[in-house]
Amino acid sequence: MISAHGIGGARDLPIPPELAIAGAVAALTVSFTVLAVAWRNPRYDAATSGRAAPAWLGRVVDAPWWRVLWRVVGFVLFLYTAMVAVFGKDLLTNPLFGIFYVWWWVALVPLSLLFGPVWKAISPVRTINLFFAKLSGGDPETGLYRYPERLGHWPAAVGLFAFVWMELVYPYSTELGPVRLWCAIYVAAMLVGGAMFGNTFYERADPFEVYSSLVAKLSAWGRRDGVLLVRSPLANLDTVTPRPGLVAVTAVLFGSTAFDSFKDSSHWVRFVQNNDFIGTHSYGLTLANNLALIAFCLAVGAIFATGTMLTGVEPGFQRRTLPGLFTHSIVPIIVGYVVAHYLSYLLEAGEATLIKASDPFSDGSNWFGTADWKIDYFFAYHPTLLATTKVLAVVIGHVVGVVAAHDRAVRLLPRRHQLTGQLPLLFAMVAFTVGGLWLLFSA
């Protein structure tokens, strides 16, 4: 289940693909038309949007014991993961694989949507860095050096690519040694970075914290001047700070999910089977998958950058800044694809991991009383519900992305270009929609 995840194939989607794609394109077109007529001024402003959360909730969330509680939870999970990584058997029954590929990667999305930046709250590397800072009498917020602004989120983009490469391309991704090594390198890099640049390093360079914090912008929770706020997700999304490497982060997240669908499609399977080079060389398939993964990430970044940079602006405006200013509009699309791609996988493989967690050493133990549980294959018996959920996730993600992009456009673009200037980005969104749904049905 760990290595064979995916969105399923056309047999899982009892909806005509032509109808789904036509409906999605129509939804985007209608949304843009309505916005063009009724939404002529920006509505979201980070400085004014949102209202203070209930006072009792703010007191709880800001209380030291609350933060310590989640640091302890995160560190206990870290210790358990380290235990099964070091002492567990090199078998797929080892819960490390589910923790690594399901809980750490996929479950981070719904948790961040519901509760905000979850990884920031439970991150064990932040906890260890805090412990070292207290021992040395330092401040975990500051390190030895100031984090270089030009680096931005580029280290996070590299880290995210390293993870999806491990998951989707590396041929030994379900062997204990490589996964254990990947985790060790991640922890070492994060601790060194935290010591050098303080907590700013985690905010901008930790791949999982950057991912979680981006998704959390679609939650109802935000902050302004340290005060907990309840915001519209679209208003919260508007607070994304454009930094170098942010486009690369979204391109890796979006492109890798698309590639994960594509590599299971009949078109890719036929290409692999009919290609003599791939068939006669042991490394041929690995090379082909590597090149395809890179191509998908680059293609997503190029299509989005082109769509934003072709918008109409005033003379002298630096067009190269536009992709970063509009990147927040890609976040709901990424979340929509994650839901469409990983929904059944998260529920089934996530439950399987919880079952395996009771037997960390594969010796018949039942530590948590879950070893005798059975996996609930709910969506296997409700294919129409699964299909509808997947298509709606993709369409809603794109519609929300169009709304976010429109609000930013009417703020940035000159009035004479506020509508026509958005057309290239709309075309890019339509291309993403058609491509995403085509992959959904062809896998």
UniProtKB/TrEMBL annotation:
<feature type="transmembrane region" description="Helical">
    <location>
        <begin position="325"/>
        <end position="344"/>
    </location>
</feature>
<feature type="transmembrane region" description="Helical">
    <location>
        <begin position="19"/>
        <end position="39"/>
    </location>
</feature>
<feature type="transmembrane region" description="Helical">
    <location>
        <begin position="181"/>
        <end position="202"/>
    </location>
</feature>
<feature type="transmembrane region" description="Helical">
    <location>
        <begin position="380"/>
        <end position="403"/>
    </location>
</feature>
<keyword id="KW-0472">Membrane</keyword>
<keyword id="KW-0812">Transmembrane</keyword>
<feature type="transmembrane region" description="Helical">
    <location>
        <begin position="151"/>
        <end position="169"/>
    </location>
</feature>
<feature type="transmembrane region" description="Helical">
    <location>
        <begin position="68"/>
        <end position="87"/>
    </location>
</feature>
<protein>
    <recommendedName>
        <fullName>Fenitrothion hydrolase</fullName>
    </recommendedName>
</protein>
<feature type="transmembrane region" description="Helical">
    <location>
        <begin position="423"/>
        <end position="441"/>
    </location>
</feature>
<keyword id="KW-1133">Transmembrane helix</keyword>
<feature type="transmembrane region" description="Helical">
    <location>
        <begin position="291"/>
        <end position="313"/>
    </location>
</feature>
<feature type="transmembrane region" description="Helical">
    <location>
        <begin position="99"/>
        <end position="119"/>
    </location>
</feature>
